[in-house]
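User: Quick sanity check before I run a bigger batch. Here is a single chain. Can you write out its predicted 3D structure?
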Amino acid sequence: MNIKQQQSQMLSAIFSLEPLQENSAHNLSDVSAAGLSIYQHSLLANASRALAITFATVHSFIGKSDFSQLVKEYLQKHLKTQFDWGELGDNFPHFIKQQSRPNSEVLAAIAALDFACHHTERAENVEKDLTTLSLLNDVGAYQLKLNFAAGFKVIKLDYPADLIITDITNSHKSTKADKGSTHSTLNDIAEQLTDYQKGQYYLLVWRPNFQAQYQQITQQEYQWLALWQSATMTESIEHPSSVQPLSIGGALDKTNQEEFSIIAWLPQAIQQQLIHSISLLTPS
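Assistant: Done. Predicted structure follows.
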């Protein structure tokens, strides 16, 4: 067995998070069971700590013990490929949804909102210049683009995660204080999670003052903002010169203007600090 094969086998053993069995396939000659156990415990502890920060709501709703077990199962299926612990967990909501555990679909929706907020708060700052709004008076819509707040995103969920978080947080502040039992509170939360109906819910996540906020939006607003989200992501991945920028006029052409009014939406977006500036597109 060459060095590369030994490294691959050792990593496989570590990420299995299972005890090293004598004469097993994972029994590496130069790695003792005790040594491997140290690596495994460290990996699980670091991953649990990192994901508890990223998915703070899920962690608080199911408790430390169940969350650690969930993280262990997640790591066993999805090896950690990121060097930044803060980037771990992009497919954690999908993983939760596939689990045969109580309230898995509801918790997956909450996890998706948790991750969206985490991603938004880590986004690089965007310079704000509202004086550029004057361009709306002098330049055609096909020569202008909107610049949004750092890390803004829209997500579509199967459950109203925002309402669930608000309801449970408010109702169990007093419950936990009265009962004085975390276990009882977690049981109450688990029961309350069964009360919500599956459907289609659209949420906007943005960061007006360095802390992520979220709110439900209409399907029409979601479709409008999804155009800009997609354009922003494309521009960040591709070289700017190879991408055709999205203009206000171009976005409106792709939007049902009978159901969505930019005249009504824009002042509210500015007030919410969702829009940071308007740019003049250079003619091609």
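Residues 125-160+200-284 form one domain.

User: Great, the batch can go ahead then.
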